[in-house]
Every structure is written in structure tokens, then in C-alpha cells.
Design brief:
31% of the residues are buried. The strands form two sheets. A seven-stranded mixed beta sheet has the order 5-6-4-3-7-8-9, sandwiched between helices. The chain is 32% helix and 33% strand. The protein has 180 residues and is an alpha/beta fold. It has a domain at 52-176: Rossmann fold (3-Layer(aba) Sandwich), CATH 3.40.50.2020. Homodimer.
């Protein structure tokens, strides 16, 4: 199946003023109720990474889990969870970061990746890049190398993808919403 950008974008719903006034939230949940849309997303990533040198797929709480878990299964790669503070058992390391509408903290379990791991970092959306940079920091603290950051949606006007690329990390997104 070819990737139909128009059809795919039609599945992404915009919710105005959520989670706070002034934010236009891009909601990917309609993709999960559309078998064709979900297949398009998974297939696009599988085709992109099937012959890559990645050894692990890391994903960010919580919407990033949904596609990354299927991708890890399809590519036969371990899945590393990067979660909000207090959600992972055992010893963890943490990193705080700023969001476009506040601040938060992420954690990863100690030993989740090994020195030299080649990681694909996945999240549903790139906005300001704060969440992804925090996740990259946690993975790199454990000796991992970030091969690429992947997302379903990029919001380039918010500068996150540019910030990541300035760190010499490639970025791949299935679609972008610019100037909206």
C-alpha cells in the first residue's frame, strides 16, 4: 500500500484549546480506529527501518508506545520505555524538561540500554523538542547512540525538529503541520 498523505492527514484531528487555551492539539487517536490508517503508519516505519542498524527502539510515554511497540515487534527489536516520573519500577534515572505548556520529568530504568546501543527514538509528535531531548539525554547517559528520531507528526513552527537536527540527529516524520 502506498502512503496516501492526504488520507493520512485526514485522520489527524485538531482539538483547539487543549490541554490549555491557545494550544491546537493534534490528536492521533482516530488513526487507531482506522485499520487502513494504522497499517499505513506501521508499514511506513517498517519499510524505513527494516534494513537499518538500529538495535533498540525507545519510545516516550504514552502515545509513542502505541506505534513503537508494534514497530519493535515487526522489526524484532527490544523496546525501551521512557516514562513520566514515578511510572517505572526499580532503579531509574530522570531528566526534567520544558513543554510548550509547562514542565515535566521523564525516567528510564537503569540498564535499559547498553553501551553502544543504536537507538531509534520514537514519539507521536515533535513540538518544541523538550521531551525528545530529555529522552535522548537519558539514553545517552546509559551509553546509547541515537540513530534517528521518528514521529508521526512534526510541528516545525515550534522548532523541535530543528533543535534535534542541530544536535546532528536525523529526524523523520510522516507528516508536518506548518503555519496552522
Amino acid at each position: 500500500m502506498l502512503f496516501d498523505d492526504f488520507y493520512f492527514k485526514s485522520l489527524i484531528r485538531t482539538v483547539e484549546d487543549w490541554p490549555k487555551p491557545g494550544i491546537s492539539f493534534r490528536d492521533i487517536t482516530p488513526i487507531f480506529s482506522d485499520p487502513k490508517g494504522l497499517r499505513m503508519v506501521v508499514d511506513a516505519y517498517v519499510h524505513r527501518y527494516i534494513d537499518s542498524d538500529i538495535t533498540h527502539i525507545a519510545c516516550i510515554d504514552a502515545r509513542g508506545f502505541l506505534i513503537a511497540s508494534v514497530l519493535a515487534y515487526e522489526l524484532h527489536k527490544p523496546l525501551v520505555l521512557v516514562r513520566k516520573k514515578g511510572k517505572l519500577p526499580g532503579k531509574t534515572i530522570s531528566q526534567s524538561y520544558d513543554l510548550e505548556y509547562g514542565s515535566a520529568e521523564l525516567e528510564i530504568q537503569e540498564g535499559a540500554v547498553h553501551e553502544g546501543a543504536q537507538v531509534l527514538l520514537f514519539d507521536d509528535l515533535i513540538a518544541t523538542g523538550g521531551t525528545l531531548v530529555a529522552a535522548m539525554t537519558l539514553l545517552q547517559q546509559q551509553g546509547a547512540e541515537i540513530q534517528e528520531v521518528a514521529s508521526i507528526i512534526d510541528l516545525p513552527d515550534l522548532g523541535g525538529s530543528a533543535k534535534i537536527q542541530e544536535m546532528d540527529i536525523p529526524v523523520f516524520s510522516l507528516c508536518a503541520f506548518e503555519g496552522e
